[in-house]
Amino acid sequence: MEKREFHPTYGEIKITINSRARNIILRAREGIIEVTLPPRASRADLLAALDRHGEKLLGQCRANTPATIDGSYKIVRENFSFSLQQGGGSRYLMRYDGAKATLLYPATTDFSDEKTQELLRRVRTTALQHVAKEHLPQRLKMLAVKYGFSYNAVSLRSSRTRWGSCSNRKNISLSIYLQLLPTHLSDYVLLHELCHTVEMNHSASFWALMDKVTDGKARSLRRELRTFATAF
Is the pLDDT of residue 157 over 90? Predict the structure, then answer.
């Protein structure tokens, strides 16, 4: 179940109740605070969590306000980069070099036009999808072979609220935004879903398996992932 409400200090808050959640999870995404609650969490629990972490998350929301995309715009991450370069033609042209995406734009491009900004944001997402499609399935396969896991199929989606999932048929779904994470955090998510091919819950056995494939760092990596902002 999902709802949105307005907090007098922290503004709009997106609240999701997840039956699989054991703890309250707070993130800053797309300029708002998103909260995932376990079913038994009370409103007092929610407000207490906001009191503890709200100021930090509000700062992240402000920092993640969408920037204007122009000729100087760049994204530089370990596994993905995106930049713009003025081209000699009258059309947009995308070029790829591994995980590096470069958009050639016409000299007449009006970066102050909102329709142009919407187009550039779509192109940026398309570039991320392209690079993720080339990288994530291969990385998942490599980790599966390394640690002796098997799965049925892998698919990619554009979710900003969930890194990945694994069905009881061992079909794994991954978010393209994993491509914006450092390799050690992206690998943590891939291993998390691979472990679900063996343990379909978050039992002690699951976390023991996670610790086995992460050299005992499963929970520290989980904490680090929760504080990592990937929004464009």
Answer: yes
What phi and psi, each to the nearest 5 degrees, are found at residue 10?
-105, 5
Residue-level pLDDT at 62 = 66
Per the structure block, which two tokens stand in for 132? 């993720």
Q: What's 43-112 look like in SS3?
A: HHHHHHHHHHHHHHHHHHHHHCCCCCCCCCCEEECCCCEEEEEECCCCCCEEEEECCEEEEEECCCCCCC
DSSP 176: G
Q: Cα separation of 168 and 151, whole Å?
A: 10
Whether 29 contacts 51, CB under 8 Å: no
pLDDT in tens, 83-96: 999 998 899 999 99
CATH class of 134-226: alpha beta
Judge whether 154 and 169 are in contact, CB under 8 Å.
Answer: no
- Residue spans of the domains in the chain: they are 2-63, 74-130, 134-226
